[in-house]
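Sample 1 of the test manifest.
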Amino acid sequence: MVRLLRGRPYLMAFALIVLCVPLILPTYYKYLATELIIWGLLAISLDLLIGYTGLPSFGHAVFFGVPAYAFAIVATRSSSLALAILAAMVAVIVITTLVGYFATKTGGVGYIIVTLLCSFAFFIIALAWTPMTGGENGLYVPEKFSFAGLPSDARYAAVALIGVSIWALAAKLVGSSYGLVLLGIKANERRMQAMGYNTERFKFQITVVSGAIAGIAGVLYALVVRTLSADLVGPELSTEIVIWVLLGGVQTLIGPVVGAALFISLKQILNTLTAYPIFLGLLFVAVVAWAPKGLIKLRIPRRIALWRARS
Amino acid sequence: MDQVTVQLANGLVVGSTIALTALGLTLVFGIMHIVNLSHGEFYMMGAYFAWAAHAVLKNFWLSVVVATVVTAIIGGALLLAFAQKLAGAGPLRWALLTLGFGYVLRELVQLVFGNDFKLVALPIEGTVPYVGGAYRVTVMALSVGLIISLAVFLAKSRYGVQIRAIASNPEAAVVVGVSRRTVYICVALISAGLAGAAGAFMLPITSAYPSMGLEILIMAFVVVVVGGMGNIQGALLASLVAGELQALLILLVKPSIATVIVLTVFMVVLVVRREGIRKLW
C-alpha cells in the first residue's frame, strides 16, 4: 500500500484525512464516520461492476447482506470467531459464484432484471426463514463477536484501515492492464471477444472480486452495527447503492463513496419529513436526467466559469 | 380435486393480470427501449383511480374505464416527457429514472389515499361450478379480450403496422414516412393503459394498497425476460406458466415461498436458454 501511495500526493492526503480527521470528532460522529466507510466500501465494490465493467447490478445488496447474515448466524450459534468468519467467506464464495454464473449467462437488460430478482428472492427468504434469520425481528450479533468492546477510536481506526487499503487495492486493479480489459468489455464486448479475450471469464472474476469486497463490508457492518434485518439483502438497498454510485460519479471509485456519504446524510436530514421518499425519488430523477456523470464530474455552469476567469 | 380446479382457474386469472402488465412492459421496451421499473406503480394507480372513481360514479365498470384512461394519460405523459432527453441512454439510466418515478408515485398515492387497504364490493356475485367466483371468470374473459384486441390492433390497424415497423427497423421505418413521435405516443399510452386496466380489474379481488405495484412488477419482469425481451407471444406464454405455477404451488407451500420457487425456475430457464423461450416455435 505504501508503494502504491508513493508519488500520488492527492491519494496520500485523502487517505490521511479519512484516517485521522474523524478521530478528533465527538463519539456520535465517529460512529457515523465508521458506518459511512462501510457504505463507501460497498459503493466502491459496485462501481467495479457498473463503472468499470458495464455490468449494471441491481442486486448488489445480496453480496453485502448474505455474508453478514452467515457471519451472524454462526456467531450466535457457536463460540468460535474463526468459524463465523469462515462461514462468511464460504457465503461470499457461494453467492458470488452463483450470481456470477447467472450474470454471465444473461446480458444487458436481462442482467439488471436477474440481479434485481436475486435480491428480491433473498429478501423473501430472509423474511420467511425465521429459525435461521430471525425473520422480521432480524438478528442480533452477540457482543463478544463484535467491535462493541473496543473503544470508538480503535473501532474507527480498524474499519478505516481496512476501507482505505481495499480502496487502494481497487484503485490499483482498475489502473492495471486487467482494468483496461474490463473497460474494453464495457465499451465493446464483441470486439474484446474478437481480440481473443474470454470476456465471460473476466466478467465472472470481477463479480467475485466485487462480491468479496461487498462481503467484507457486510461483515464489518455486522461487527459494528450488530443488528441485521432483511432490508440488508433487499431490492430497496440494492437500488439505493446504484444511486450512490451514479450520484457520486461512475468509473471514479472515489465518487461513489462521496455519493454514498451525501445520500445517507441527506436521508438522515430528510427522515424527519413524512414524505421523504418523494424527495429521494425526485433526486433520482434529477441525477439521472441532468447529472448522468455524477456530481463530482458536474461541470461548473458556464457563467460562473467565465466570471471566475475574468476576476 | 375441487381445490385443484379452483386453483387452476385462479392461476388463469393471475396469469392474465400478469400478462396485461407484462404486455405493456414488453411493448415499451421493444419500441422505446425503456426499462420501466415504475410500471408496477401504473398498475397501482389503476387500482386507486378505479376506487376513487367508484366512490363518485357508483358503477364499477365505468370506473374501470375511467381509471384506464387516466392512468394511460399520466403514465404515458411521464414516459414521453423524458423520452427525448434520454434517447439512446441505455437501460441503466432508464431503470433508475423510472425507479425514481416509482418512489414518487407510491408516496403520492399514500399521501392522497392513506396507507390502508381500499376495497370495493364484487360487482358480480355468485360462483361458477369448478372454477370459482363469477367475477374472476369475467375478469379473465375481459383480459383475454383486451389481449386479443391488442393483437388485432397490432396486426391490422394502420398504427399497429407503424408500431411493428418501428420495432423491427426504426431507421427504415422513419425513412418511409412513419412518424416516430406518433408511434411513441401510441405505445406509451397503450402500455400505461394496460397496466391501469389490470390494476382496476384486480381492485375487487386484492384491494388497493401502496405496495401492490412492486409485487406485480417482479412477476411481470420475470415474464418479460423469460419471454425474450420485447417479444409478445413469449411474454404471454410465460405469464400463463407463471400464474399457473404460482397458483398450484400455493396449495403446497406459503405464498412467499411459491414466489421464490417460480423466480428460481424462471432463472434456471434463463440460464439454460439465454434468449428466453422465444425460439421454441
